[in-house]
Amino acid sequence: MEQAAEPTMILAVQGADRDAIQGLLADAAARWTAAGVHVIGVVETLPPGGAHHEVMLLDLASGQTHRLHQNLGSGAAGCSLDPEGLANACAGVETAIAARLAAGGGPQDTVVILSKFARQEAEGRGLTDAFHAAVAAELPVLTSVSPSVGTDWAAFTGDLARIVPVAWEPVAAWWSARCDADGIVAEGSVAEGPVAAGTLAERAAS
After folding, report:
1. What are the CA-CA distances from residue 122 to residues 33, 55, 147, 168, 197 (Å)?
2. What percentage of the chain reaches a pLDDT higher than 90?
3. Close Cβ partners of 146 (under 8 Å, ≥ 6 residues apart)
4. Which helix (H) or strand (E) holds 192?
5. Alpha-carbon distance 74 to 72, whole Å?
6. Dihedral of CA 118/147/135/171: which sign?
7. Which end of the chain is more exposed for a tag (fewer CB within 10 A), N or C?
8. Which of 122, 121, 143, 130 is nearest to 90 (CA)?
9. Residue 193: is its pLDDT beyond 60?
10. Using alpha carbons only, what angle is made at residue 12 by residues 185 and 101, rounded to the nearest 5 degrees?
């Protein structure tokens, strides 16, 4: 009988709009937290009826929010991403990972959720350092990837990641397989182009 492949360190969802993707990531965070898993990372959140520039990054460990976009006004051209907000969000995740490791946490009880790998990350900015920190700590990562940077994503992650549809079932199956592979006993049940900063495969091998 052929042995099942070991689950990847990173799972990325793809194939739906922002609301569906970020909703799934937030739902996964809630389910795992309820099951006793320590969840670190950021997801995008938008107040009901909010405009595009009001999207925030919610830090899942601290509850702090960081502005993702700048309001450039009507008719403005160019990227509206707020580099300071992204940098602060990334730093918050790195700090939370370091604190979790210092407290004795590890892949047996901790998961990192990162909202997206998109153009900023493909260029070595955005949440890139948070991805590196998670992999260096050997923590499992759940994220999403923009189809427009698929080639960059493949170069960045190598064989550390796979992509699945935007649905809870493949996410739950991935986590269950990781728990089985690592011998994890959960405290509760879970309800049903090169990158400038280097690749994750290089970081994992270092």
Report:
1. 29, 21, 12, 26, 9
2. 69
3. 14, 116, 117, 118, 119
4. none
5. 7
6. positive
7. N
8. 130
9. no
10. 45
State how far the Cα of 135 lies from the Cα of 10, in Å rounded to an integer.
Answer: 9
Residue type, position 37, single letter:
V
Do 93 and 59 contact (CB within 8 A), yes or no? yes
Average per-residue pLDDT for the chain: 86
Report the C-alpha gap between 197 and 13 in whole angstroms.
23
Where does the chain have alpha helices with state H?
18-34, 83-102, 119-122, 128-136, 150-157, 168-182, 200-205
Parallel/antiparallel/unpaired status of strands 10-13 and 161-164: parallel
| Cα 8 to Cα 164, 173, 191, distances in angstroms | 12, 12, 22
Distances 130 to 49, 86, 108, 181, 200 between C-alpha atoms, Å: 30, 11, 19, 24, 11
Answer yes or no: is pLDDT of 79 > 60.
no
For tokens 């900015």, the residue is: 125
What are the tokens at 104? 């004795």
End-to-end CA gap in the chain: 34
